[in-house]
Amino acid sequence: MAMCVEDRISNFSDHVLCHILSFLPIKEAVRTSIISTKWRNLFVSISIIKFDGDLLFGLTDRNIDSFKNFVDGLLKFPDQVSLDCFRLHDGISSWNDGDHDFDVSGWICAALCRGVKEIDLKLQDVPPVLFTCHSLVNLTLDAVGSKIEVPSDVCLGNLKTFYLINSVFVSDSINRLISNCHVLEDLAFIECSIANASELNIQSSSLKELALLYFDPTDIDHVVVINAPNLVYFQYDCDIVVCLLSNMKSLEKAEVYIWFFSDYYEIQDYSDYETSAAHLIQGICNVRSLTLGFPKEIFPTSRLPIFYNFNELEFREDICSVEFLHCVPNLKKLILKYLNYAGTQWKGLCIEIPSCLSFHLKEIEIEIPCIDTHMIEMVSYLLDNAMVLERLIIISTNRLTTTTEKRKVRNQLLQLLKSSKKCLIVIL
């Protein structure tokens, strides 16, 4: 006898069912219309609409036109519910190929009219009306390398998260845009640039997270000014520029990675770049946790102040030196990664021991490609001078090291003298 399976899902209210459908790909959500008469029109009331380029893959011209009409009806249907999220992505800018007239700007406007809270766009022609939407809370915009001119009546009064990708801002458009986002908390520039402007001015009392990941060697002729008194996280990952930072007293964590293409610049005097790097680091001197990745040519060891608030410090790209440890007297955790030539950093050591080693440093983590005599020299120095060290973790990233080699190095490390009797050595 065939068993009768109860359809409990269909007993949910339309509101709950529409919420469930919002998390399905648009194709799957539409297919539910054939389940029963109850499901026939539920998909038109979903609150999350995402269109990706793969929706058009393999479609005939006739089917593409049907798809266009479907999207027009889905977004512009009267008496629609408000939208939580609207996404146009993955090649959307190539949909208008001359044969098919997709009303992309109309779709965006329709989403804005429905009070959309989150928008994620990847397209070349950005409609200016996008920057006047009061309902937007989260905006991710990839302009595919095209220029963006922000209108004079820009107002994004409820915007809290703003990610800008591969965009070129003309004149002072970006400064006007930021100054009109009054509750902005999370701002990121990713592979962006500025045309016809001498300054990028980021002034915001509401900003809590800021990421600048956007400069290339041909776009460094302007100053970056940052005034964000409530900023708690700052990431800088690009070429060195003149960066003026103020009111960073709330900063808790920062990641600074500097690119420097010496072949491109063809110079021997690095003093100007050292100065710019020093200004950048000095601007975040109140931070508690810092990750640094610098080329050795411009690392400004001799130009740095004392960082009294540092609790955790991570070095990358082989720049750690005993001299810098003198700048962080209260350091509790030190992480060293990618030290290809670690031994050169610890030869000819100065007589004075950094105070963080003597009184505060409790944990050291070393991630290194090769555990060799140079690395052992460094570890020996740290163990010999870290008076209150509780844990030393050593991670070898070289997967080709044999078990016998690992055992030999392990024995060498475990035989090193330790000033801290309670220090635990972990080798991975």
Shape: elongated
Which regions have little confidence, pLDDT < 50, spanning 5+ residues? none
Please tally the helical runs, counting DSSP H or I stretches of 4 or more residues: 11
Strand residues, percent = 15-25%
What is the residue-averaged pLDDT? 78
Helix content: 10-25%
Q: Widest sheet: strand order?
A: 1-2-3-4-6-8-11-13-15-16-17-18-19-20-21
- Report the structural category: alpha/beta
Let me know the largest β-sheet: 15 strands, parallel
Distance between the termini: 60 Å
Radius of gyration: 28 Å
InterPro entries: F-box-like_dom_sf, F-box_AtFBL13-like, F-box_dom, FBD, FBL13/AtMIF1-like, LRR_FXL15/At3g58940/PEG3-like
Pfam families: F-box, FBD, LRR_At5g56370
Domain FBD: 355-428
Domain F-box: 12-52
Tell me about this structure.
The protein is an alpha/beta fold and 428 residues long. The protein has a domain at 306-428. It is 23% helix and 24% strand. Strands 1-2-3-4-6-8-11-13-15-16-17-18-19-20-21 form a 15-stranded parallel β-sheet, covered by helices on one side. Helix 3 runs parallel beside helix 4. Residues 355-428 form the FBD domain. InterPro entries: F-box-like_dom_sf, F-box_AtFBL13-like, F-box_dom, FBD, FBL13/AtMIF1-like, LRR_FXL15/At3g58940/PEG3-like. Residues 12-52 form the F-box domain. This is F-box domain-containing protein.
